[in-house]
Design a protein that fits this description.
CATH architecture of the largest domain: 3-Layer(aba) Sandwich
Bound molecules: NADPH dihydro-nicotinamide-adenine-dinucleotide phosphate
Strand content: 15-25%
Mean pLDDT: 97
Number of domains: 2
Shape: globular
Order of helices and strands: HHHEEEHEHEHHEHEEHHEEHEHEHHHH
Radius of gyration: 21 Å
C-alpha cells in the first residue's frame, strides 16, 4: 500500500482480488514461501513516455503515454490501449492487474498488460488522431512485438486508431505481424472481434441465468449503460436472445426507449456519425432523453449490464436497482460497480457476474486473432463465434466451480479471481523467482 499510496483504482482492484485469494493462500503454503502475491502485485515493467504531436493549428501538444507489462507467466502481455483524459498510472495499473486474471480465465496463453494515454480523441480531427497515434507508436514499438506484448483497443481506441497505430508499427519495423489485435479485416483482423465483448457478455450471462436460476434472457427487460463498442453489441445479442433492451447512455445522459432500443439506429449514430446518444430521440419518437448518466440505473429492469466505465454504478444505484426488482447484473465495462454496490447485489441474492469473467470475450477473441495471424489464415464468423461462445461458458463454469471448491457457493467474484489466479500461480511457481 505504501508504495502505491496515490493509486486509488489500483489499490481498490488489488484489494478486492487479494481478499478473495486468502483461502487459496492459506491452503497452499508454497505461495507464501515463494512470494507469489508480493510478486503478483508489482508489474514486471512500467513504461511511461512523452507523446508530442502537432495539432491542426500547428501548435505542439504533449501527452503522456503508458504501457504496463504486468505479468508474462502464461504468455505474452496482452491488454488494450485506452485514450481518455482521465487516464493515469493508477487506472492503467488497475486495468493491467485485472487483465492478468481475465486472460488466464480465457484458457488461452496470454499474460496481462494495459496501456494508453491522457490524449482525448473527442473533438479531434482524423488527422490529429493519426498524428497522435503515429507519435505514440514511435515510442511504443520498441517495447512490443507479436511474441512480447500485443496491445488492443479499449475506450477511445477503435478500428480507426488501431489502423493508424498498426501502419506506423509496420513502417518502423518493416514487419507484417500480429502485433496489435482489433485490426481491420483487410489487414489481419478477425471476424467477431468487433462484437466479441458484448456478445461474450451475453453468452456468459445466459449461462449464469441458466445454471443458477434455470432462466434466460427471453422476455426480460434489460438496462444497458454506455453506447460504445461493448454496449452496442451487448444490446444486439441480448435482443437476439429475446430480451428487450430499454436504455443506452453516454457520459452526458441516457435514452429510454420502452419499445426496445433499435440497435441499428445506435450503430449509425455512434459508429458512422460519431455522434451522441441524445440524437437517438430525434430518429425514434418512442424514446426519451434524460440528462445525467447515472439516472440510467433508476429504470426498472430484470437484468442490468453496465458497459460504460469504471465506478459508474454506485451503492445508491445498486440499491435502486434492487428495489426495482433486478435479478442479475453482469459487468461489460471494467470495474463499473463500486465495491459497496457489489456487496449490496450479493447480499440481496442478485446474480453478479464480475468484469474479469463476464467481459473476457473481447480479449479471448483477440487471442483467436493472434492464432489466425500466426497461421496466416482467416476463420469464418460462425467458427469464431462458436469458439467465443464455448470460452464464455467455460469461464462461467471455472468460476462457479472454484467458488464451490473454497466454500463460497455462487460467489462468482471470488470464483473468477481464484480460477484466474490458480493457473498464473502455477506458472510462476514453475518458473522460479525469475520475475
Ligand atoms: P468505447 O469508447 O467504445 O465506449 C465507452 C462508452 O462509455 C461511451 O458510451 C462513453 O461515453 C462511456 N463513458 C466513457 N467514460 C465515461 C465516464 N467517465 N462516464 C460515463 N460514461 C463514460 O469503449 P468500449 O465500449 O470499448 O469500453 C467500455 C468499457 O468496457 C471500458 O470499461 C472498457 O475497459 C471495457 N472493455 C472493453 C473491451 C472491448 O473489447 N472494447 C473489452 C473488455 C472490457 P462518452 O462518449 O460520453 O465518453
Amino acid at each position: 500500500v505504501e508504495r502505491n499510496g496515490e493509486q486509488t483504482e489500483f489499490l481498490e482492484a488489488a484489494g478486492e482480488v487479494l481478499s478473495s485469494l486468502e483461502p487459496v493462500v492459506a491452503a497452499n503454503p508454497r505461495l507464501e514461501e515463494e512470494g507469489v502475491i508480493e510478486r503478483l502485485v508489482e508489474p514486471e515493467r512500467v513504461i511511461m513516455f512523452r507523446v508530442p504531436w502537432v495539432d491542426d493549428a500547428g501548435k505542439v501538444q504533449v501527452n503522456r503515454g503508458y504501457r504496463v507489462q504486468f505479468n508474462s507467466a502464461i504468455g505474452p502481455y496482452k491488454g488494450g490501449l485506452r485514450l481518455h483524459p482521465s487516464v493515469n498510472l493508477s487506472i492503467i495499473k488497475f486495468l493491467g492487474f485485472e487483465q492478468i486474471f481475465k486472460n488466464s480465465l480465457t484458457t488461452l496463453p496470454i499474460g496481462g498488460g494495459k496501456g494508453g494515454s491522457d490524449f482525448d480523441p473527442k473533438g479531434k480531427s482524423d488527422r490529429e488522431v493519426m498524428r497522435f497515434c503515429q507519435s505514440f507508436m514511435t515510442e511504443l514499438q520498441r517495447h512490443i512485438g507479436p511474441d512480447t506484448d500485443v496491445p488492443a483497443g479499449d475506450i477511445g481506441v477503435g478500428a480507426r486508431e488501431i489502423g493508424y497505430l498498426y501502419g506506423q508499427y509496420k513502417r518502423l519495423r518493416n514487419e507484417f505481424t500480429g502485433v496489435l489485435t482489433g485490426k481491420g479485416l483487410a489487414y489481419g483482423g478477425s471476424l467477431v472481434r468487433t462484437e466479441a465483448t458484448g456478445y461474450g457478455l451475453c453468452y456468459y450471462t445466459q449461462e449464469m441465468l441458466s445454471v443458477m436460476k434455470n432462466d434466460s434472457f427471453k422476455g426480460k427487460t434489460v438496462v444497458i449503460s454506455g453506447s460504445g463498442n461493448v454496449a452496442i453489441y451487448a444490446a444486439q445479442k441480448a435482443t437476439e436472445l429475446g430480451a428487450k433492451v430499454v436504455t443506452m447512455s453516454d457520459s452526458n445522459g441516457y435514452v429510454y426507449d420502452p419499445e426496445g432500443i433499435q440497435v441499428d439506429v445506435v450503430k449509425q449514430i455512434k459508429e458512422v456519425e460519431r455522434g451522441r446518444i441524445k440524437e437517438y430521440t430525434k430518429r425514434v419518437p418512442s424514446a426519451e432523453y434524460h440528462e445525467g448518466c447515472s439516472g440510467v440505473w433508476t429504470v426498472a429492469c430484470d437484468i442490468a449490464l453496465p458497459c460504460a466505465t469504471q465506478n459508474e454504478l454506485s451503492e445508491e444505484s445498486a440499491k435502486t436497482l434492487i428495489a426495482n426488482g433486478v435479478t442479475a447484473v453482469a459487468e461489460g465495462a471494467n470495474m463499473p460497480s463500486v465495491p459497496e454496490a457489489v456487496e449490496a447485489f450479493q447480499k440481496a441474492g442478485v446474480l453478479f457476474g464480475p468484469a474479469k469473467a463476464a467481459n473476457a470475450g473481447g480479449v479471448a477473441t483477440s487471442a483467436l486473432e493472434m492464432s489466425q495471424n500466426s497461421e496466416r489464415l482467416h476463420w469464418t464468423f460462425e467458427e469464431t463465434d462458436e469458439k467465443l461462445h464455448g470460452i464464455m461458458i467455460q469461464i462461467f463454469h471455472a468460476s462457479y466451480d472454484a467458488a464451490k471448491k473454497y466454500g463460497m457457493d455462487g460467489n462468482l467474484v471470488a470464483g473468477a479471481n481464484i480460477a484466474g489466479f490458480e493457473k498464473v500461480a502455477e506458472a510462476m511457481l514453475a518458473q522460479g523467482i525469475a520475475y
